[in-house]
Amino acid sequence: MTDDALLALARALDAQDPLARHLSAFAEAPGVDAYLDGNSLGRPLAATPERIAAFVREDWGTRLIRSWDEQWIELPMRLGDRIAEVALGASAGQTVVADSTSVLLYKLIRGAMAHDPGRTEIVIEAGNFPTDRFIADGVAAEVGAVVRRLDPDPVRGVTVEELGDVLSDRTALVVLSQVDYRSGALADMRAITAAVHDAGALVLWDLCHSVGVVPIELDASGVDLAVGCTYKYLNGGPGSPAFAYVRSGLQPSFRQPIHGWWSAADIFAMGPEYAPASGIRQLLSGTPPVLSMLAMQGMLDLIAESGIEAVRAKSVSLTDFAVRAYDELLVPLGVRLLSPRDAARRGGHVTIGHPDFRDVTQRLWADGVIPDFRFPDGIRLGLSPLSTSHEETLRGVLAVRDALAG
Ligand SMILES: *Cc1c(COP(=O)(O)O)cnc(C)c1O
């Protein structure tokens, strides 16, 4: 296929895209030709600057400390419920916004290890995101547990069969990512959760690379625990807080380890002893970062308006088109596909590999084409569905081709 034919195809797909009208909802980025890193840092909405300015003027500047009573105290739970409703397939009262993903991983893994002290093993993927592995290792050292590592094919991801080989009556907790941050492999949440439960263990799903792009059914899948980022596909901005989910049936017996005044039954009792809150607020520890919770609210509205199924349909169309462009333009240059070819097994990004990609990425960034580089030689094309067009995707793949060829 010629470049022109690919361009015509991209434009035809954009013309049919029912969500294309939302592209203009995002702030312009002068000098950026293709932003293909929305899976690491989502773009700001055009409305975000005014949202933040109005907050400073009114909620903070005028209502002042009265805003805590009027709206901020409940915000971590209200926003958690909103994420749950729009993107997690979870009913209210199970999700809270707080901390970073790393800190919430600590709270949930530590809490899970205290849940059934007779069980002493944590199962995690050897290739899981570093913070997930490091925190599991740290908790294991703290409580005298053993970490068992799964080492599945990195492009295919974890299967129920492989998991079956390591599960036993010693397994306390299994920590997995729904979408692999490198390959984009999409795990079978429902089947894996059922297998973990058959072994009598708890499961903790990391949703950082799936929330806002892949439909998730936490309640229907029977998931125990989950965490996720809000600065990737939820466009909350750099360092926006994470969210944690604890299944309602588990909450009465679940205790997280960082007991702060915000975890307590009565925040303002100021009493001598700690008593945990009965609901999901127990997951909080200290004062929530209200300012950092603003930007994601606009994105959640946009996803709700679009419908997560439609967002997923566009995501599949974008990643399928990226693979098509890869086949046409990059296979002849010796580039490898490091993501599943079958869209049903893939999340929102496509990873490709070539020994020159470290240098290529530096040149692309200088030219305003922004994918990201993952060691040792992968480029991830992160195609955030609401802010990315097929034509922009093609500009990115053409730029990779030109940088390799030139
Ligand atoms: C992005 C990401 C994180 C990030 O954790 P932070 O505490 O927000 O830095 C953690 N786990 C996975 C799988 C991720 O993709």
TrEMBL record:
Keyword field: Hydrolase, Pyridine nucleotide biosynthesis, Pyridoxal phosphate
Superkingdom to which the source organism belongs: Bacteria
Residues forming coiled coils: none
Pfam families: KYNU_C
Catalytic activity, EC: 3.7.1.3
Gene Ontology molecular function: kynureninase activity
Cofactor(s) the record lists: pyridoxal 5'-phosphate
Chemical reaction(s) catalysed: 3-hydroxy-L-kynurenine + H2O = 3-hydroxyanthranilate + L-alanine + H(+); L-kynurenine + H2O = anthranilate + L-alanine + H(+)
Pathway involvement of the protein, from the record: Cofactor biosynthesis; NAD(+) biosynthesis; quinolinate from L-kynurenine: step 2/3; Amino-acid degradation; L-kynurenine degradation; L-alanine and anthranilate from L-kynurenine: step 1/1
Assembly, per entry: Homodimer.
Functional summary from the UniProt entry: Catalyzes the cleavage of L-kynurenine (L-Kyn) and L-3-hydroxykynurenine (L-3OHKyn) into anthranilic acid (AA) and 3-hydroxyanthranilic acid (3-OHAA), respectively.
Family according to the record: Belongs to the kynureninase family.
Protein's name according to its UniProt entry: Kynureninase
Organism per entry: Microbacterium resistens
